[in-house]
Write a structure and sequence with these properties.
Blueprint (H helix, E strand, L loop, with lengths): L1 E5 L13 H12 L4 E4 L10 H11 L4 E7 L6 H14 L4 E5 L5 H6 L9 H15 L22 E6 L2 H7 L5 E4 L6 H17 L6 E10 L2 H15 L5 H8 L4 E3 L1 H12 L5 E6 L5 H10 L8
Parallel strand pairs: 1-2, 1-9, 2-3, 3-4, 4-5, 5-6, 6-7, 7-8, 7-9
Helix pairs in contact: 2-3, 3-5, 8-9
């Protein structure tokens, strides 16, 4: 199993030193045992724009896979999104993976000038179809030449479906290459069920075996301190939910503990047949990337 690391793009102090935090994290991830560098998308928030960040991390890294998860296609024009992602794939020499999801926040749709009525799996699938036509070099609009550049990866970057539910998994089996899962409370039984459902859906659709990835928040340190860090992070990130509900979630969400305990948890997830876990930090201190990387070295594989 591989282990990826997410940039702290949703932290309130991510811009305290300009781009320094994001660059130092990117270089630390690229230098470590990590298989992928990941980041998420929000519009009505103070995180970096996902597609702009793609260009920066392509320049800051040379080895690690770049995983934009998840991008919401309905927040973008599909032709423009296809061009941006193909450009990113060129800039990183074919290291791009893209997670796609419908998103859960109507305020992000409003901020992007997108209609919340498009927040459906059918609409997302239609936009994916347009993007794949662009990446195949087809003439999707009336123009002198097809829209380029073509991506380095033939047919476009790897596409993973971001989901928490079975209906999304079944509907995405026709077009996605795998799963960009998210585990709120790191329930291994539920994780196993989702993996089994994904394998079955892909088999029923006559598709190759899916790539299975999942992610969860983490905080390192003594349990009480780590749990409090996780709570602070969720209060900032989940700003559309009343704090009492966020606090209830934070009591059991993610992982809070030592690097050794996290390593043991990752081994149990590996036993479920997971291909990659993408860890989500809950603060912006880059030291944990090195500390945790040292703990995981030789325990899991990474992309060379």
């Amino acid at each position: 199993m591989q282990v990826g690391m997410t940039l702290p793009v949703m932290e309130p102090d991510v811009w305290a030193s300009g781009a320094t935090t994001l660059e130092s994290w990117s270089r630390a991830i690229d230098d470590g045992p990590w298989s992928s560098l990941c980041w998420g998308e929000r519009m009505a928030f103070d995180n970096p724009h996902s597609l702009t960040l793609l260009g920066a991390v392509a320049a800051w890294t040379a080895r690690v896979r770049l995983t934009a998860t998840v991008v919401v296609p309905q927040l973008h024009d599909p032709v423009s999104l296809a061009k941006a992602l193909a450009t990113g794939d060129q800039l990183c020499d074919g290291r791009l993976t893209v997670g796609l999801g419908v998103g859960g926040r109507e305020e992000d749709y409003r901020a992007a000038g997108a209609s919340p009525t498009t927040k459906t799996m059918a609409e997302m699938a239609a936009r994916v179809a347009v993007m794949k036509r662009v990446w195949a070099g087809e003439q999707v609009v009336e123009a002198t030449r097809p829209i380029g550049p073509l991506p380095v990866q033939a047919g476009g970057p790897e596409l993973l479906v971001g989901t928490l539910g079975p209906r999304t998994i079944r509907s995405a089996a026709a077009w996605a290459d795998g799963l960009a899962g998210m585990s709120l409370d790191v329930d291994l039984a539920e994780m196993s069920r989702v993996f089994d459902l994904t394998r079955s859906a892909w088999a029923e659709a006559g598709r190759p075996a899916p790539r299975l990835t999942t992610s969860f928040w983490f905080a390192l340190g003594p349990p009480e301190e780590a749990r409090e860090q996780l709570r602070r992070h969720l209060r900032h990130y989940m700003n559309w939910i009343p704090e009492r509900h966020v606090d209830a979630l934070a009591a059991s969400a993610g992982f809070a503990g030592s690097p050794e305990e996290l390593r043991d948890l990752l081994r149990r997830i590996e036993d479920l047949g997971c291909d990659e876990v993408q860890l989500i930090p809950t603060d912006s201190a880059v030291g944990k990337v090195h500390r945790l990387g040292d703990s995981l070295t030789d325990s899991f594989t990474h992309v060379v």
